[in-house]
Specification:
- There is one protein chain.
- The protein has about 425 residues and is an alpha/beta fold.
- The chain folds into three domains: about 1-100 and about 395-415, Serine Threonine Protein Phosphatase 5, Tetratricopeptide repeat; about 105-225, DNA Cyclobutane Dipyrimidine Photolyase, subunit A, domain 3; about 265-385, Rossmann fold (3-Layer(aba) Sandwich).
- The chain is about 50% helix and about 5% strand.
- It contains 19 helices and seven strands.
- The strands form two sheets. A five-stranded parallel β-sheet has the order 5-4-3-6-7, sandwiched between helices.
- Strand 3, helix 13 (about 275-285) and strand 4 (about 290) form a beta-alpha-beta unit.
- It is globular.
- Bound molecules: flavin-adenine dinucleotide.
- Flavin-adenine dinucleotide (FAD) binds near residues 55, 56, 163, 188 and 203.
């Protein structure tokens, strides 16, 4: 997983999708997750040099390793006060997910607009030229062009680079934020409907009313350790992108019917949680497992091969873990591509119920919307089961992050992590 680089005397880092790869990375990072992370995390040292941050996001995004596992490992080595910043960053993910869950219309509006803009690129030559200039890294803004290349080649960008990139996209290049978010989702290995959409909205001034994020030359210079200085092309004003939309009405968080095991149970694995270890303890023996990936539908434009390979590899790795399970009807894990194929799999295996970890707002939920009804028409019950971490945190995530942040020690204590 790590290759010694002669050029930098550093390590070249690759993301491999197996759970074991994520766990190894976690183990390597734990020692750096305390005060060193607090002091250094904002420095973007450039491609293959992101040693101050964990680089765990592609595994965490797909819950190949969970937020709970990451925080537990970190707090075995550091006190909460020493690792407070890192733990809070993990909770930013939780917060965005909970927030989107309570405001699903933000996702729907974004995905409709992103698809419309993808079509508009075909007919509007001015928009197309600007879009291609940005996405091919040919704007002449050196840092921005380098981040474009890094994103395309590696599938990752440092958090600060993501903020600067999004800001330049919106306020300097004056491109629609939805097209930028879509470009990220097609190339980031950790591309996530909540973290990505809401971070772009935050930069553009649509999350906290009137608050935009402006990339400044001196800030970029400081946190890239002088790799980019005197960037003269940047906009010096950041007016909210379009009219600041009123935050759509808050919807109640999902309450699922408690899982009841009656007869043969099948597990459905999706991109949203590829290691539902605790759920499996509750379900009892499984007779069948299927997986379903929505990765190709994260955008109406093509998804990068890096992302496709990562997600596909993660599903294969998850399938391999289940193949060992003795209770299964046969040793293969079915790959399903549609609601119809999932229903056929459930019928083939004479299932009484299909269970899956809660499917949060995003493309997986959009595609599987009719699954519950179709299974029930065939006499098969569909259960979604919430993870304890989300169940505790999401009720505090529907407004500002501060409200959730205050609850972190109490929640970690209730989860027996501290
Ligand atoms: C415009 C923009 C788009 C983004 N898109 C995504 C995305 O699609 N998917 C995604 O996972 N993150 C996204 N982020 C958040 C953040 O940049 C990444 O989570 C982080 O850079 C991942 O690198 P890491 O694992 O080394 O982070 P670390 O600093 O090591 O943090 C540890 C973990 O905490 C979580 N995390 C850290 N910072 C944030 C944050 N600001 N918001 C949400 N979660 C966070 C991640 O799960 C991460 O793996 C985006 C941020 C911006 C500004």
């Amino acid at each position: 997983m790590l290759v010694q680089s002669d050029l930098f005397g550093d390590f070249l880092f690759m993301w491999y999708p197996k759970r074991i790869n994520g766990l190894e990375q976690l183990e390597r990072f734990v020692a750096r997750s305390g005060r060193r992370y607090t002091a250094q995390r904002n420095f973007d040292l450039g491609m293959n040099r992101h040693e101050h941050v964990s680089k765990l996001s592609p595994w965490v995004r797909h819950r190949i390793i969970s937020e709970e596992e990451v925080v537990t490992a970190v707090l075995k080595t550091h006190t909460l006060s020493a690792a407070e910043k890192f733990v809070q960053e993990v909770f930013w993910r939780t917060y965005w997910k909970g927030w989107l869950e309570a405001h699903p219309k933000v996702w729907t509006d974004y995905s409709v607009r992103a698809s419309e803009l993808a079509e508009e690129i075909e007919s509007n030559t001015q928009l197309r030229d600007q879009f291609l200039m940005a996405t091919k890294g040919k704007t002449g803004i050196a840092c921005f062009d380098d981040w474009t290349q890094e994103l395309i080649e590696s599938g990752y960008l440092h958090n600060h680079a993501r903020m600067w990139f999004a800001s330049i996209w919106v306020f300097t290049l004056k491109l629609p934020w939805e097209l930028g978010a879509d470009f990220f989702i097609r190339h980031l290995l950790d591309g996530d409907p909540a973290s990505n959409t809401l971070s772009w909205r935050w930069v553009a001034g649509l999350h906290t009313k009137g608050k935009t994020y402006l990339a400044r030359s001196d800030n970029i210079s400081k946190f890239t350790k002088g790799r980019y200085t005197n960037i003269t092309q940047l906009s010096n004003e950041a007016l909210p992108a379009g009219s600041v939309a009123e935050t759509p009405p808050l919807l109640p968080l999902p309450i699922h019917e408690p899982f009841k095991s009656v007869g043969p149970t099948g597990l459905l694995l999706t991109d949203e949680d590829l290691n539902p270890a605790k759920l499996i303890k509750e379900t009892g023996p499984l007779v069948a497992v299927a997986n379903f990936s929505s990765v190709e539908r994260r955008s109406s434009l093509p998804i990068s091969p890096n992302v496709l390979n990562f997600v596909c590899g993660a599903h294969e790795d998850a399938s391999m873990r289940f193949k060992q399970m003795k209770s299964l009807n046969n040793s293969s894990v079915a790959g399903c591509k549609s609601v119809k194929e999932i229903c056929e799999w459930a019928l083939r295996n004479d299932l009484n119920q299909v269970v899956t970890p809660h499917i949060s707002v995003g493309p997986t939920r959009d595609i599987l919307e009719g699954l519950s009804k179709d299974l029930e028409l065939n006499g098969i019950k569909f259960y979604q089961v919430m993870n304890q971490w989300d169940l505790m945190s999401w009720p505090h995530s529907s407004r500002g992050f501060f409200k959730l942040r205050k609850k972190i020690p109490k929640m970690l204590s209730e989860l027996h992590i501290i």
